[in-house]
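Q: Is it fine to ask for two folds in a single conversation?
A: Yes, each is treated on its own. Send the first.
Q: Here.
A: Result:
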Amino acid sequence: MRGISSASPLVRFAFPISAVAAKAFRLVLRNLIGRSEESAHDGETHLAAALEWLSLAQDVIDERPAAGGVSAGWSFEDGWLPGCPETTGYIIATFIDAAKALNRPDLTGRAHRMIDWELSLQRPDRAFPGHYGEPGSERHELWCSLF
């Protein structure tokens, strides 16, 4: 069986796809068939990098109205995006778990800032605004509590 490489892919797409998307698909396929390459870094290094990225995504909006939340992402067109209530909510639990597992109280402090921001957005009917939390956006029901 031939190896999978970008020079001789086993998968050809019947529709236009970006080079980045094609490479990502091939990496997933390699992993699924057991032919993935070993990572250049260990799991702890990857975890530390992910936590630092999420921390940066919180820090970059500290001077904005969404201070405390986590940026929805970054784009070449707009740079750092506003805070996103939905994804910030997911990150809260991640930071609390990571703080306990890694003995990193700074992550608990970050999670508390996220919680404060989330609660500042909550509407009287207990729903949260959708999209980036801006006024007038579609509401999201609160189906579970933060704690």
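Q: Second one now.
A: Result:
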Amino acid sequence: MQDFSNELQLPEFKIINKDVKDGVVHYYLESANLVKPICPSCGKPFIGNGTPERLVRDMDLYGKPVALHILEHRFYCKDCRESCSETFDSVQPRARITNRLRNYIEEHCFTESISSLSQKYGVSVKTVSQIFNVASAKKESTWIYYTPATLGLFLIRLNGKMRLLCLDIDNSGIIDLLEDTDNTTIFKYLTDKLEADKIKTVIIDFDLVLLDTVYSVCQNARIIADRRHIIELFRIALEQELGRVRAKSKLSIVVKKTEDLSQREKDSIEELCQKNKGFETVYRAKEMIYRFLDCTDEKDARDQFANLGKIPAECVFFRKAFINIDNMATEVFAGYKHSYNLKCTQEAVKFARAIEKQGNGYSFNSIRARLLFAPPKKTATVKITKMVYKPKGSSGFNFTIPYGTGKDVLILGNYVSISDVMDMISAIME
């Protein structure tokens, strides 16, 4: 008989036979060193009680699916009438897949879809889902939540419902994704998972419910309405206004600044303004908005924003955007006083659009687990400092110095880089 003992690399089994059917390699196995167990109740040896065959799926071998037919000895105690089955190191009791296949699925379930892993290894979707849930729980148990100095809270749409993306703005990282955006969920997150008194700045989306909740919890923090969302509000309003005056085809030209227009584009706009007075009104209003958006100084921004109040009433979508921004004027102009990581918020907007396209068909818990646990986990740290005091009576002032070397840091918690998540999404889309 041909020796197959080294093919599977499972030393606890002896291969009795092997054949190939319909492209699947079948191995027939039994224990290599069978030892009859002792009854735990009376201490007498068990007797044999049959050897049913258990079909178990294993990792592919030589590019072909592998099925293991394991002869699993059953045992029985005549005196106590207790029974048990033979156990193995490489297969869990009653399991239909080997431990190494389970480990492989657990390792890849965050980067491959559940359905693709199910089809690839002939394992039920239910089994893969159970492995995914166990893996998510393991990852969650090691995830360290922390309070960033600059917290970003942005709304994104997943599976037709608004969710809340939580960011560490300074590190350009994602720290969490909340399933709901109601007052109760946001309040619970800010109070249970974060330490509100440690938050110095909160960058938020345009949402009054979000604003009220943040103010109620982060009373000492600086609240800033993200400038990228101001631009997005006006961009959407511009598209709607052009649709209203039947000039949506000109969007690619109208969105440009006047100094960026070619002479041909300028002539085209001038001609349309003469033919369509509604378009002319929209275009002039757009120029007023762009002058506001180009401001870098708070005083200039306030002056230009005041001019937006003169936008004609017929520009209903521009007026609506203006009112939404005016409702958060304090937070809008706070952004001109205090700088923050604009690159992070720009990446967050791109990320939100990308994940909206990829989120359909997955449950929220599945999406959240993939976002947080699939990319490489990063660690947020802060250098340890301490106050050093001069002895009483000596000259000089108290001063602060870094404690030790650059290696002396305090671990805050975990996040994933937005750019890493974007790379992962791009790989999935290819």
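Q: Anything structural to flag on that second result?
A: Two points. Residues 1-96 form one domain. Residues 125-142 form the longest helix (18 residues).
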